[in-house]
Amino acid sequence: MHLSRLYTLKCGAKNWASVKHFGDEPLNNLLGSLLFMAVVSSPAAANMPEGNSELGMQKAYTCQFCHGATGISPRDDYPNMNGQNAEYLFDAMMAYKEGNRDGAMGRLMKQQMSVLNTQDMADIATYYAEQSR
Ligand code: HEC
Q: Separation of 13 CA from ligand 1 center, angstroms?
């Protein structure tokens, strides 16, 4: 999960708590927290540059050993990526790169992401998103 999303969830929870405790204007508080969540969560998706799937296919060369050439993983414990939302894939890659998805497999992916820039990740995300399920 991308850091800004985590942050949004936390702030959302905080606002919910205040709806409970200081309930004189619950609707305003609720609208405020929804607005706040919308504002804070939009940059993650907006950060994704337009991807080029032709280039993405070439750049995904090293990924296919684990994720398959068209995003269908040869192993049950590695995730499929075919037909997934491009922005989701992009956010996931950013999260690995920034160390926000942890665990042994997360560190493995962080290593994979270390050689990719933002445009590479957008291209690859676009390529896998376009593959049929
Ligand atoms: C050595 C095997 C391996 C290679 C190579 C590899 N990955 Fe992964 N990838 C994994 C594993 C395992 C996970 C699940 C990690 C976890 O538990 O978070 C993963 C997760 C992902 C996810 C998150 C999927 C989801 O549904 O949340 C994305 C996106 C991703 N990889 C993209 C890539 C890209 C792009 C490349 C090539 C640049 C790549 N991977 C190379 C093994 C690999």
A: 30
The answer on 110 and 61 residing in a single domain is yes
CA 2 / ligand 1 centre spacing (Å): 15
Residue 84: the pLDDT is 98
Q: What is the pLDDT of residue 13?
A: 42
| Closest residue by Cα to residue 62 from 131, 130, 114 | 114
33, 39, 42, 44 alpha-carbon torsion, rounded to 10°:
-90
Residues 62 and 104 in one domain: yes
Using DSSP's 3-state secondary structure scheme, residue 12 falls into helix
- Distance (angstroms) between ligand 1 centre and the Cα of 31 equals 37
Domain of residue 74 covers 53-130
Q: What does pLDDT average to in each consecutive run of 10 residues of the chain (133 residues)?
A: 44 42 55 51 68 98 97 97 98 97 94 97 98 96
